[in-house]
Amino acid sequence: MAYGPADAIDLTGLKRALVIQLRHHGDVLLTSPVFTVLKSHAPGIEVDALVYAETRHMLDLHPAIAQVQVIDRRWKELGAMARLAREWGLLSALRARRYDLLVHLSEHPRGAWLARLLGPRYAVAPNFGRKAAVWKKSFSHLYPLPPHARRHRVEINLDALRRLGIQPGEEERRLVLVPGEDAERSVEALLAKEGLSARGFIHFHPGSRWKFKCWPADRAVGLVDALAKRGERIALTAAPDEQELEMVAEIRKRAGARVSDFSAKLTLKELAALAARAKLFIGVDSAPMHIAAAMRTPTVALFGPSGELEWAPWRVPHRIVASTEHPCRPCGLDGCGGGKVSECLTQLPVEAALSAVDSLLAR
Q1: Any residues with CB less than 8 A from the CB of 65 and at least 6 apart, and which?
Q2: pLDDT digits (tens, 9 = 90+) for 4-27
Q3: Global pTM?
Q4: β 101-104/202-205 pair status
């Protein structure tokens, strides 16, 4: 007896598919197995991605992706005619591809519009109960979101394909991020300048664009000093964000140990190349954490209000550091009471992170 949905699609004859993920960097990276699975089960198909412009580097060297189409958020700043011209250019480019299959992975309304405007034979999207009937009628298939079970985001993304009758293989579910030769060479030169060798340092990315996901600077200083006393070399990174850079500056000022600071000096591809050469990555729930996991680097992840069952480092040796004293977590709120400070995270002791580091390094 064959398993699978009664309305499973026939992949035979499909020429092109479009996968849409209009969210943040980490979310886009966690869609990378979708492309791998589609290409594996339909080798003759060309699979394109549609993402925001700033996230394209998460996917643009993925071996299973034919083209990465982008939407630039800055279009909103243009005049009406200029923005309309950009939108029309994108729609024309997408129509020219003549997609047979559209896979939409978020609740962004553009997915429903495109399912109607592009006219693919099949279109699948999440079944959000609160969405209007026009959403549900835009797609040939809708996949359910688990109402109670906490399920990793990678698996939820892959549920879109399961709903179509495509069952992912175990080895097809890995994250894929290719830094590229330029990024590899650039990072090699930066490491050599700092006297750092591959697997000879720990990569620490203490910040996040979301302040409520950040560990306090004093805890980060304590961790850096404790690791340095053990003879570890530390490579610090941060996004070119004012808050993140201020945090790293404070860590450098207060830490007694010497650190190599690559803050705001790396592209996303270079960040991946750096993480790939580290013997360990430490960070909060953020895109750099997922990048490290994609590069197969053992990861210590500090979690507060977000849930590790949904967002943990994917398929890489890792340790989760999270509070056992706050039964309210994971609450998903932007700090306790919406106050931008998450006590379940700010109260995590340095010793807990050190214990996680020791556990991973002992492997």
Answers
A1: 35, 47, 48, 49, 59
A2: 899 999 999 899 999 999 999 999
A3: 0.96
A4: unpaired
